[in-house]
Amino acid sequence: MAEGKSTRQLKVGRVVSNKMNKTVVVAVDYLKPHPLYRKIIRKTNKFHAHDEANTCQIGDVVQIEETRPLSKTKHWRVTEIVKRSEEL
């Protein structure tokens, strides 16, 4: 393996909850064809991610990276905020 090359997964999704301390819930959408009928289906997975500074707000688009288990459900870490949400 090359030096500095990471094999950790990266995903981009939107924050749907930030009610927990230092934790956000990130929803990642996928488009996948139905196995038999070939219609495109939208699928959503939710991941708990560690947000050390509590900076993420609901609606932000963030990049998360796979990490070691931080708790029972947290295995991801927020690496950057791609786009801030527009507040009204």
- Strand fraction: over 45%
Main-sheet strand order equals 1-2-3-5-4
Determine the number of helices (DSSP H or I, runs of at least 4 residues): 0
CATH topology: OB fold (Dihydrolipoamide Acetyltransferase, E2P)
**Mind telling me which CATH architecture this is?**
Beta Barrel
Please compute the radius of gyration using only Cα atoms: 15 Å
The CA-CA distance between the termini, in Å, is 47 Å
**Mean residue pLDDT:** 93
> Which regions contain 5 or more consecutive residues with pLDDT less than 50?
none
CATH top-level class: Mainly Beta
CATH homologous superfamily assignment: Nucleic acid-binding proteins
Order of helical and strand elements: EEEEE
Oligomer description: single chain
How many structural units, i.e. domains?
1
What percent of residues adopt helix (DSSP H or I)? under 10%
- Number of extended strands: 5
Structural class: mainly beta
Inertia-based shape: globular
Report on the biggest sheet.
5 strands, mixed, barrel
